[in-house]
Amino acid sequence: MTKIISATAIQASVLEASQPLNCFWPLTSFIACNSLKGFENRPFEEAMKKARQLFNARGFLPLVEYRALYESGRIRAGDVQEACERSNKIAEVAAVASDVDEHVFAPIATLADFLDEAHGTRIVMQTNQQLVKWCSAYFDCSQAQWSAPKDGLYKGWRQLVGFDFSLTLQGSRNWKNLLSELPAQADRALEFLLAKLGVEEHELVQYLQRHLVQLPGWASHLKWRATQGESEILTDYLAIRLFYEVSLSEPIVQSSYKGVVRPWATLSDRRAIELAKADASVSKASDWSAIWQEGYEINYRNRLIADLRRSKEERHSRGSGAELAPACQLVFCIDVRSEPIRRSLETIGNYATYGFAGFFGFAMRLQSLNSNQSIDLCPVLISPDRLVKESIGPGSQALKAPGFVGLRARALKLASVQALLASSLQLRKRLKSSLIGAFGLVETFGLWSALPLVGRTFWPQAFQGFFTDAKERLFPAPCTHLDTSAFSLAEKITLAEGCLKGIGITDNFAKVVVFCGHKSTSANNPYASALDCGACGGNSGGYSARLAAQILNQPDVRSGLLAKGIVLPAGTIFVAAEHDTTDDRFQIFNVDESLELDSAQREIVEQLRRDLAAAGEIVRSQRLKRLPQSAIDSFNSTGVRGVDWAQVAPEWGLAGNAAFIAAPRSLTRGLDLKGRTFLHSYEHSKDQGNAVLEIIMTAPLVVAQWINMQYYLSTVDNDVFGSGSKVVHNVVGDFGVMRGASGDLQLGLPRQSVMAADGTREHEPMRLLALIQAPREAIDQVLAKHQSLADLVKNRWLRLVALETGAPDRDVLKFYQADAQGDWREIQGEACFFDESEASACELMV
Prior knowledge:
- The strands form 4 sheets. The protein has a 6-stranded mixed beta sheet, sandwiched between helices. A 5-stranded mixed beta sheet has the order 2-1-7-8-9. A 4-stranded mixed beta sheet has the order 4-3-5-6, covered by helices on one side.
- The chain is built from 30 helices and 17 strands.
- It starts with 6 loop residues before the first helix and ends with a helix.
- By secondary structure, it is α/β, with parallel strands linked by helices.
- Helix 6 runs antiparallel to helix 13.
């Protein structure tokens, strides 16, 4: 008889079984994440093999595509030679390493797997359908008209499943008897079902893990919910899954195996042998793929380093004449879409631009005007505990004027109209979903409903412009400010100091300093938040820019900064702006309403408006050439793309991202990085104790690596790690996307976000190249303090390069790459290429 497994062992096993999965955020904050984060403590190549075992996923491009890259010169012989040398060194280290947790990823089959293979049943598919149905209903936010009980997934399911006779229709006869035997608590129910299945304790982790990877999207979302306070949600989910497995399997088990339910163990053993044979047959191809991928990335590294050296030499040859003090300093998000704007703006006028995480170091929970809900504007690594409310109350000189009463009346009127519109839309939705109300709705409003349908379809820009203009005329939005009272004065001063030091602006301030957040505009797009600011939790960055500027403009904060050695001149003012990355247009906030500018500052701001418009036009024309084109020319403009509800590619987002550079702007100024680089400002000479370097490496760099891996995995295997074509997407519960009417939650980006319709990839899948201008000793100190960060480097999930400019010749750039052993190796020249005639070894790889 099977030994009863303790509840403690079950809970620990559930946690361990979910280890390979990453948390999957809902659509409202669809931030980038590495779907294989659970494998980051393993070498990258090994992780790709484990992903194939667990998810049947591909981790590299097909060999034929690497060969095409080689023949086109995108991979050179020297790149492959270096990759082979690195692979040999890694193999030597791996030969003596021990894999202590290999059992966690050992192949295993469930009872449902066995019966499906041995008897041609569809128990796995039927179980998945049941779990999708119940999870969709339970986690629904606003789509369903009837709400499921919300006192726990297992408890809610147990209350309702007795009224669902789908199991009877699928041939299960005794499922109600089994249901009556189930304990009321999920962990006890899971213990009961595991005993009924005959799962041994040493098989527990693998068995539960196999169930989780049957629907990895849903399991990953549940893992996220577990981090949000629903600690028992994975146990609930597994208890329900095993109930359906037992119920659907029982008729066959009783008739064919006389009630003995462990024949699946023989399948597990057979699968282990089959997978070992399969691994042996594909190991050579996998190893070649890893080497080709390494060479592919080495080629990009060499080209980028060559460009940096060439740019440095060109600046040196032109001489270092006296530079004019910038008229305006602008702080952009490190997002790769900011790089072309910064470069274009610097060619137009005398501007100094900086890169910093788009929340500018001011984490907050925002409650916008006339809203009862709040959103977190900060990276998901941070949990803000300060609520900032947008309001019309006092806070700026303009709002203290006699017209303030009129502003408040206008705001109240706007709030009433917004509430009325929201209620009307909700009522219309309910009527549409009602069996009886739908007929009356069509009869009453059918023709009127057709008018906006036609407008949004054939004239989307004009239609949107008409309603926007009408709203502004009838209910103009009042000037607002952010209530910062949730922050104490000491907190404001500390945050302001951290912001300025993190950016690297502690002296020589211009008359106008601009914090520029960013957002994206798109219609009918479930993945809209993936195009917004990741540093703001998948939201727009305008509010973060406003909060930073507002706090730094406060006299008491400036006085506090003065005591810390940061002098903000009285003639310096901070301004907030926002960049729309869909059409590269800018909005500057509250300059006319709430900021008191002198004539010089006002002139600078007006000139900035014109120059931002010019820079946006330059970048807009460049980006438009890359985007998929419609046969109807009028639908190709960036203005239409953002409001066209049939547009599958409003913009490319962060496609193409390949590098992260933390260095002074002087290193990259004037260099065309083609919108592929995260640019973070950093000057090591101003960083005492490596405090800023540690923040950069443990926060922005990590987020950039998440983004990079999401794009990488969504490109190399879009069916598993992406979300397929947008054409068949179906939003479920306002929190996720399925393909079609039922199925798994889609983990990554749509195919249209990484490639064109003809299959041409807009994103080149390669691991992030992190280049930091700092001494190697300083970088090593940070790595030594953060094991998870060191794992990313040593296990080759990113490529870390240190740039040093030391005595006696500070004009010479020396680059050193960290290897898997934790040592640094200097990268000599552009690269060390062997002759093409010696490339015969490459032929073996294809």
